[in-house]
């Protein structure tokens, strides 16, 4: 009788252990996914913008403050669409450039003129306000979230981004041009519905007039982005989750 009781107790313990394993594998992940998942993020950001063009080739020179309004639509835990409106300035001077520019574009080389004097050097300074509107696609290296709204999501996720947009520079006269933003960064879920994003984006534009000067050497060139001005932005944004996704739609990934 004692042996039979021991056998029954062993079977019961095995059954309890198996039940616990099944609960861990199926019930707990299901419960983890019961937390709300949100479709939208809205917030603001601040950072630094650097002009890259004829009068500057250093990513750390002439940085200017930048401020942004940001909205994101989260397609799924690994993909998002970001719309941003950003204000900044592009600032620089021909005195800071390592390249020699003639005051007269017809003088292409720093050669001595007939009377023995050197050609006049271009003296140009600019401080142009810039406003840009951007739509970007973001791809996370892995699922992003708290891990409770989507099983396996992580609170920290690096990402790559690519998009399109418009840039307006008050270069007197004003310049409106298309741009191609390319960059990357990292997202951090700092609270249940609060997100912190640090990113760097290079904006390639279709204009060489953002600094107010086109072709300082007077050399004509062709190509969508060839010899055109561009600018980069490093910024940190804080966004808040909105618009809870219906739980019956959680299987559409």
Structural notes for this entry:
The structure is a single chain. The protein is mainly β and 253 residues long. It has two domains: 1-32; 37-246, Beta Barrel (Porin), CATH 2.40.160. Helix content is 12%, strand content 46%. It has one helix and eight strands; from the N terminus they run H-E-E-E-E-E-E-E-E. It has one helix at residues 2-32, and strands at residues 38-52, 64-76, 79-93, 125-140, 156-169, 175-191, 194-205, 230-244. It has an eight-stranded antiparallel barrel with strand order 1-2-3-4-5-6-7-8. The radius of gyration is 28 Å and the shape is elongated. Residues 1-9 and 20-32 have low confidence and may be disordered.
The helix/strand series, from N terminus to C terminus, equals HEEEEEEEE
Distance between the termini: 56 Å
**Which strand order spans the largest sheet, edge to edge or round the barrel?**
1-2-3-4-5-6-7-8
Identify the overall geometry: elongated
How many strand elements?
A: 8
Unreliable stretches: 1-9, 20-32
**What is the CATH top level name of the largest domain?**
Mainly Beta
CATH architecture of the largest domain: Beta Barrel
CATH topology annotation of the largest domain: Porin
Structural class, by secondary structure, is mainly beta
Helix coverage percent: 10-25%
Determine the number of helices (DSSP H or I, runs of at least 4 residues). 1
The main pleated sheet reads as:
8 strands, antiparallel, barrel
Rg calculated over all Cα atoms: 28 Å
The number of distinct structural domains comes to: 2
The percent range for strand residues is: over 45%
Mean pLDDT: 79
């Amino acid at each position: 009788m004692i042996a039979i009781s021991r056998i029954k107790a062993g079977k019961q313990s095995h059954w309890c252990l198996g039940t616990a394993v099944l609960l861990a594998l199926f019930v707990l992940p299901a419960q983890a996914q019961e937390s709300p998942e949100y479709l939208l993020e809205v917030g603001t950001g601040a950072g630094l913008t650097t002009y890259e063009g004829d009068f500057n080739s250093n990513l750390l020179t002439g940085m200017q403050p930048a401020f942004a309004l940001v909205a994101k639509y989260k397609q799924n835990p690994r993909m998002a669409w970001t719309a941003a409106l950003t204000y900044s300035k592009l600032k620089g001077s021909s005195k800071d450039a390592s390249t020699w520019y003639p005051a007269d574009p017809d003088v292409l080389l720093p050669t001595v003129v007939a009377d023995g004097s050197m050609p006049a050097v271009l003296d140009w300074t600019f401080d142009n306000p810039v406003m840009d509107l951007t739509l970007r696609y973001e791809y996370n290296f892995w699922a992003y979230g708290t891990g409770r709204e989507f099983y396996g999501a992580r609170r920290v996720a690096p990402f790559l981004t690519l998009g399109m947009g418009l840039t307006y520079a008050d270069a007197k006269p004003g310049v409106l041009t298309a741009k191609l933003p390319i960059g990357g960064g990292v997202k951090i879920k700092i609270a249940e519905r609060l997100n912190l994003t640090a990113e760097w984006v290079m904006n390639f534009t279709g204009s060489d007039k953002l600094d107010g000067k086109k072709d300082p050497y007077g050399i004509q060139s062709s190509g969508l982005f060839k010899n055109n001005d561009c600018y980069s932005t490093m910024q940190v944004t804080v966004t808040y989750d909105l618009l809870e996704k219906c739980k019956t739609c959680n299987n559409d990934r």
